[in-house]
Amino acid sequence: MKFGIIGAGMIGRFHARAIQAMAGGTLHSVYAKRPEAAEEFGSEFGVRASSDLDAFLADPELDIVTIATPSGAHLEPTLAALAAGKHVVCEKPLEITPDRIDQMIGAAAAAQKTLAAILNRRFHPAMDAFKRAADDGRFGRLTSASAYIKWFRDQAYYDSAEWRGTWALDGGGALMNQSIHTIDALLHLAGPVKSVQANTACLAHQRIEVEDIAVAILEFESGARGVIEGSTCTWSKDGHPARVQLCGTDGSVFLADEAFELWDFREEKPEDEEVRRSFMKGAAAGLGANDPKAIGFLQHQRNFEEVVAAITEGREPATSASEARKSVALIHAIYESAGSNGARITL
Hints:
Elements: E1 2-6, H1 10-21, E2 26-31, H2 35-45, E3 48-50, H3 53-58, E4 64-67, H4 75-83, E5 87-90, H5 98-111, E6 115-117, H6 125-135, E7 142-150, H7 155-159, H8 174-190, E8 193-201, E9 213-220, E10 225-231, E11 243-248, E12 251-256, E13 259-265, H9 270-279, H10 298-313, H11 321-338, E14 345-346
Parallel strand pairs: 1-2, 1-4, 2-3, 4-5, 5-6, 7-10
Antiparallel strand pairs: 7-11, 8-9, 8-14, 9-10, 11-12, 12-13
Helix pairs in contact: 1-10, 4-5, 5-11, 6-8, 8-11
Domain Gfo/Idh/MocA-like oxidoreductase N-terminal: 1-115
Protein name: Inositol 2-dehydrogenase/D-chiro-inositol 3-dehydrogenase
Domain GFO/IDH/MocA-like oxidoreductase: 130-253
């Protein structure tokens, strides 16, 4: 399938490298509002460049569009691409409110086109092993499920673009921007959340509207309890990995980025030793914890490959819009609770 990218910034380049490396797709074109940005990007990657969105989308060779604009500017280009008969893969968050996501889902259904998301933390082998253990019931009664994203962004990061740290275009702070992939991973593994109580603050940055630290207490539909702690104000020389931790009556697993810190079950299985040998590693720098450019594109590549496979096979992709909606709905409930002095919010 031939891919076009809407957005010629850092994330657009990230998408371009993943598409160039993938199986089942080729990079075909790019659109950016500023002609010079489009031309620079097109020259860099050897693809067609356009600053006319209608002309970009009218290209009959273009099959699928990826959206790499700021978070709160995903709705309009997605609707335009779907109306033009293109499939869409949208960067996280799919949009910044559940209502806006519902508009996108409705438009995809009306156009009979696939709308998928980038949920890249689902696409590494350690996560595959973690998900199998959860689906196979190896934790027994799940009692605890938590996520910790203790990252750092300096003031220059927020000052680098006017949209950063705004409700209108960032949609939130440490949770909606930096933590959303790990929150998605938590929901992917532990299932839906029933209620939240939360507190947020901006402790270490200036000239931003949103939180740089948030703590939420979760009650899952399963009865398990847990915590989400997300921040962009917890400095570390090498950066803390993003962690997902599940515990139950029969097992405990702690995942730090793409490696396990703990893999421990009451009933051992033959594959457990192989999991430990392959995925238990010493302390490592967090992936993207201090520098968003430090993240590799392999998981994005696999995400794109899954979407193309799903379209080819006529099925919903694993990273469907409805899957991507779940983390946004949870983060909105956390913000609602924090804005209501920690009131319990039921999802």
